[in-house]
Amino acid sequence: MSSRVAIVTGAARGLGSATAVRLAQDGLAVAVLDLDEASAKATVDAVAGVGGSAVAVGADVSDPAAVEAAVARVTEELGAPTVLVNNAGITRDNLLFKMSESDWDAVLGVHLRGSFLMTKAVQKHMVAAGWGRIVNLSSTSALGNRGQANYSTAKAGLQGFTKTLAIELGRFGVTANCIAPGFIASDMTRATAERIGQDWEAYVAQRAAAIPVARAGEPEDIANAVSFFVDERAGFVSGQVLYVAGGPRA
Ligand code: NAP
Hints:
Layout: E1 5-9, H1 14-25, E2 29-34, H2 41-49, E3 54-58, H3 64-77, E4 81-86, H4 101-129, E5 132-137, H5 149-169, E6 174-181, H6 187-195, H7 200-209, H8 219-230, E7 241-244
Parallel strand pairs: 1-2, 1-4, 2-3, 4-5, 5-6, 6-7
Helix pairs in contact: 1-2, 1-8, 3-4, 4-5
The structure holds NADP nicotinamide-adenine-dinucleotide phosphate (NAP).
NADP nicotinamide-adenine-dinucleotide phosphate (NAP) binds at residues 9-10, 12-16, 34-36, 39, 60-62, 87-90, 110, 114, 137, 139, 181, 183-184, 186-189.
C-alpha cells in the first residue's frame, strides 16, 4: 500500500497497455481497466514481467454504476487511486452526412462521459490525499479531421475538460494535463487502415512520410509522455496539452 496507485482505462492493449507497464516501471501499482476483465490479463502479466503489481478490472467507463464499483474495487485491492489516465476510446468514423446518431453518441459517450465519470469517481481520493495526477488522451484530430466529426469533437472537448480540472483541483495538489497523440501504430489505427481498404505496411509508410520525424509513433512514445506528467517533479505543470506527434501539429 506504500506505492501510489494508478488507474489506466482502456489498458488491455495499445497506448493504455504501454502506459500501464511504464507506470509500473515508475513504481506505481496499476489497475488495468478495460471493458472486458479477461482481455486486461495480458497487460497485468506484462506489468508482472517488469516486476510491478497490477489488477485487471472490467468496467464500461460510460456506465456510472460500473465506474463506481471499479474504483471501489481498486481502492480495496490496491489502495486509494491518485493517478488516473483516461485513455479508453473508440472510433466510429464517417462523413458527417452519413454519421448516425448512435455513432455520435457512442464516441462522445466513451471519451467525454467516460472521462467525466472516471474523474468524478477518482478525484475524491486525490483530494483526500492532497495529491493527484490526471492525464487525458486527446488527439491531433481535435484540430479537425475528415470523417471524424464525433471523434474530433470529443477530443477537443477533452482539452477543455482538462483545463477546467486543472483550475478546480489545483488547490488540492492535483494536476490535470492532456496528451494529443498523432499517428500511433495500434489496433485502432490498424482498424482505420482496414476500413479504408489499405494494406497496413503501406498505410504506415504513407502516414510516416507526412510526419516530420519520419516514422509512426509507438505506444511507448505516449506512455513516456504520461510518465512525465505523472512524475512528482511535474507538479507545476497543469492544464497543458502536449502534442506527441513527431512534429508540431498544434
Ligand atoms: P485501442 O487499441 O483501440 O485500445 C482502446 C482500448 O479501450 C481497448 O482495449 C478498448 O476495449 C477500450 N475501450 C473501449 N471502450 C471502452 C469503454 N467504454 N470502457 C472501457 N474501455 C473501453 O486504441 P489506442 O490506439 O490504444 O488508443 C488509446 C487512446 O488514445 C484512445 O483514447 C484514442 O482515441 C487515443 N489516440 C490514439 C491514437 C492512435 O494513433 N492510435 C491517436 C490519437 C489518440 P475493446 O477492445 O474491448 O473495445
